[in-house]
Amino acid sequence: MLAGSFVLTPATALRYERHDKKVQQMSTEEELGFRERGKEGARKVWDINEEYYRLAAKDLDDWENKRVK
Known about the structure:
The protein is mainly alpha-helical. It has helices at about 1-20, 30-40, 50-55.
């Protein structure tokens, strides 16, 4: 039991160190790029009521089964 804690502690530390290497701080150039793109191609805010009415308007009785290859 005691030996397990000595093995797992460095292994867990290594896991978190690898994760920290993947996550990086965003540079100012990248941040400005996202802000500019956000103004041009701003995503529409998702509304559950609009989605409900959009799906309710579809004709679900007349559909065709399509195979994906």
